Amino acid sequence: MRRSLTRSMVFAAGTLLTLSLAACGSGANPLDSGTSAAPATPGAPLVIGSANFPESQTLAEVYAGALNAAGITASTKPGIGSREVYVRAVQDGSIDLVPDYSGNLLRYVDTTATASSAADVMAALPGKLPADLQVLEPAQAEDKDSIVVTQATADKYGLKTLADLGKICDQIALGMPPEAKERPQGLPGLEANYGCVPKEFVPFSDGGGPVTVKALLDDQIQAADVFTTSPLIAKNNLVVLEDPKSNFAAQQVLPLVRAGRLDAKAIEVLNKVSGVLTTEDLLRLNDDVSGDQKLSSKDAAAAWLKEKGFIK
């Protein structure tokens, strides 16, 4: 993952976000592509994309490995970008599927969504997707955004919840992904739910990874958006602030696919993966890739698939 943050990285991330949001159209449904992707050749190999952070890349390798083991040819296209980018790639046929997260996907397609529990999110999500997209079965595995602070910052301000953070938010710098500036669960949600308007918004493009956490530990920022399955939380004794108003909805891992692209066998394989993937598995996979072992996403995925019996 990224080891240093430069001005050019921040500028590039902001430029990508601007372009992707402009493509969505002001006030339009972000998934209304206006054009239909060309139908894929029957039996053509599947292409599985991923977002621009390691967990998503590992999940893409898990999906591809399980499909290949079942005799369904699949390859990966990692690091496509944020949801604003990879959803378009599924729609235009650049990729066929991508691992996603239920709650954030729902709030992306429906900015007025209020569902927060896993069951409520999954009850609402399928009906909000456009006709050219569908989701498969969700895993028990969940990885939510969370706002974390150092123990020193928590002690200094008496922080236990996001409501506490809201009271002093105008005194701190908050690090989040660039797209959080617009997403409902990002700055808009933090302001609406907790009155949190940070003194400074600092965009990071490493998905709450080591660059973000280093900035937090160096006190360049005082709060950061870090995924709950990140091994960096425990390793650095970070404090996860409670979210009593469910600004961050349930985030079950699930495949987002181009409607009609997968046959029954491929769907069965991916649903089987979701049926056994747990949050504890995510924590271990993330540690394998981002911890001391530094396994590649493909190797970590292969080890998990063998352990679970997908690879003989």
UniProtKB/TrEMBL annotation:
This is ABC transporter substrate-binding protein. Transmembrane segments: none annotated. It comes from Arthrobacter oryzae. One of its GO terms (molecular function) is transmembrane transporter activity. Keywords: Signal. InterPro entries: ABC_Gly_betaine_transp_sub-bd. Pfam families: OpuAC. The keyword Chloroplast does not apply. Residues 45-307 form the ABC-type glycine betaine transport system substrate-binding domain. One of its GO terms (cellular component) is ATP-binding cassette (ABC) transporter complex. Residues 1-22 form the signal peptide.
